[in-house]
Amino acid sequence: MSRIETFYHRSVVTVMLVILLSPLVATLIYAFSSQWGSTILPEGFTLKWMTELLRDPRFLIALEHSLIICFGALALSVVLVLPLMFVIAYYFPRLDSVMNILILLPFAVPPVVSSVGLLQLYSDGPLALTGTPWILIGCYFTIALPFIYRAITNNMQAIHLRDLMDAAQLLGASTWKAAILVVLPNLRKGCMIALLLSFSFLIGEFVFANLLVGNRFETLQVYLYNLRNGSGHLTSALVISYFLVVLLLTLAANTVNKDKD
């Protein structure tokens, strides 16, 4: 590759990064600006908005609620989906094409339409779940399913699951012992990618959280919606805060993966 081509590719990558990061950088600056209205640059910088946000008990409770729902949905997804994926990949590989269609069904129906149906089903009766975190965990499970299934399926194909299982069984391991002790450790990175993708999507979900639970179990997105008539600086601080939560979890996951390599 010539120097001109290398320079061109680097320039394109730099421009794309600038375009992608510009909204985030602008939000970050606005979150720490004392006043930014009629001038190109902020008139000053302050920690007032971030401090006010961190001292607000509603924000801390909303953050706790969001983490509980997201982690609960992801834990449910891994416990239920991972064994099913192994059975399909090892025993019934022809069902993979059917699963590829089924996992896309949650995105085929708009969230508003799904919410109306869920409200009619779970507002009363023996399973009155509306307004509780349980209905959100169930909804988020269906949303996370495509991310988890696709990422882990790709990982299973990359490690040549059937060859790995055959080798373990030749050495005397039973099917499930080989799955737990041999296959599962090799799926660690795929699981981590799936969980991080799902978490970053779920923590920003608003429609289900607002319609099914609302203020009765306020999440970060509902809290952000309730701040719409307040200070824009405080809203920007909130956006930066949950971006930092995702970033810190991503860095922690990468550190754990590197330690185990």
Summarize the structure.
The chain is mostly helical and 261 residues long. It is built from 13 helices and no strands.
The helix/strand series, from N terminus to C terminus, equals HHHHHHHHHHHHH
Task: Characterize the overall form.
Answer: globular
Largest sheet: none
Structural class: mainly alpha
Contiguous uncertain segments of 5+ residues: none
How would you characterize this protein structure?
- This protein has 261 residues and is mainly α.
- The model has no long low-confidence stretch (mean pLDDT 84).
- Helix content is 76%, strand content 0%.
- It has helices at 3-31, 48-54, 57-90, 96-102, 105-108, 111-122, 133-158, 161-170, 175-186, 188-202, 207-213, 220-226, 232-260.
- It is globular and about 70 Å long.
